[in-house]
Amino acid sequence: MKKLLIIDPQNDFCDIPGAALPVAGFEAEQHAFLKRAEAMTSAQASVALN
């Protein structure tokens, strides 16, 4: 069984107006990550949000 651990992706790092510490490309990477997480979930993997 595959496992995926997600540790506190914070809005402060999003590349959006008003973010405290914006990281270029964060939002695009977050969407790609969510697609991978959905694929793992549909493959009966264990996903933990922390």
Q: Which helices and strands occur, and which strands form pairs?
A:
Elements: E1 3-6, H1 26-42, E2 46-49
Parallel strand pairs: 1-2
Written description of the protein model:
The structure is a single chain. With 50 residues, the chain is an alpha+beta fold. Helix content is 34%, strand content 16%. It has a two-stranded parallel ribbon. α1 links the parallel β1 (3-6) and β2 (46-49). The two termini are 19 Å apart.
The Cα radius of gyration reads 13 Å
Alpha-beta classification: alpha+beta
**Individual helix count:** 1
**Biggest beta-sheet profile:** 2 strands, parallel
Query: What average pLDDT do the residues reach?
Result: 77
List low-confidence stretches: none
Number of DSSP strand runs:
2
Intertermini distance: 19 Å
Strand order of the largest sheet: 1-2
Oligomer: single chain
Global outline:
elongated
H/E element order? EHE
Strand content: 15-25%
Helix content: 25-40%
List the main descriptive attributes of the protein structure presented here.
two-stranded parallel sheet, single chain, alpha+beta, elongated, 50 residues
In short:
The chain has 50 residues and is an alpha+beta fold. The chain has one helix at residues 26-42; strands at 3-6, 46-49. A two-stranded parallel ribbon has the order 1-2.
